[in-house]
Give the backbone structure.
Amino acid sequence: MPRMLDVSDEVRAEIGDEEADRLLVGDDAPGSYDCTSCRTPGDPEREPTSTVLFVGEETAVLAFAHANCIPSQVVSVSEEQLQGAVRSITGDSPAPSPSVPAPAPGEAPQTAPGGQAVLGITSGLVLIGGELHPALVVEPTAPIARPGSTGPGDDFLPLLIEQGFIPVTDTSELPSPLHGWSVLLAAGQLHAVLQPGPQGGSPIHWWQAHQALSVTDGWRAAVNKTQRVLVYAAPVGSIGQQPREDLLRDALDKAAADGQLVAASMPLAGTPGA
């Protein structure tokens, strides 16, 4: 009987008391599962387990995760993302593999600070203090103008600094935590970077993948260990699509030396941001 299953109040409100109680007594809970975050096996009878409800425009899917990976919560995703997550969770089709071993690149249209842009996202591992840390590198495909600006300037970094990102001068130092921001990893894939909602409301998407991005097993293992993701950002043309992690690190070092890099440390979605 899965005594170690957590059903949060927001999940209970969505699925109803009857279904929540059935889960807690073991009627509908799995005997084992693959964690929706790190994709390693879990057992609700032996370890604390979270219920995670993914809600799309027309579909809702209940999944399970290690409690130390992600707390019980409701996650809003697009219907397309949800269908992809369902296929990944049920094994109906394999998750797409990145085109190179690491980092795994991807781009998606998303409203960035300052206006509509395409933000390129690259995942990779960064060595700091002898430990590998999961990282995301964000670079727009065009300059980002400040809202209302008519000039050709690029305000991407100043806008992020106003949001709490810190300029990086030395990539051997860990970026500071950024309160209220988080990274959504679901079904072992990268879905979004979330920022605080207006007036302290629910988090909103700062970047959202058009199609969930695969990350390497090593990246998932690292984030499962640290529970945080290092997010670096640089203006267009500063980093580029680097095919290897050593080249990505070299590009980060150069951007930092040129004063063209900001960063922040973020937890997985649903965990405290401070």
In short: Residues 92-116 have pLDDT under 50 and may be disordered.
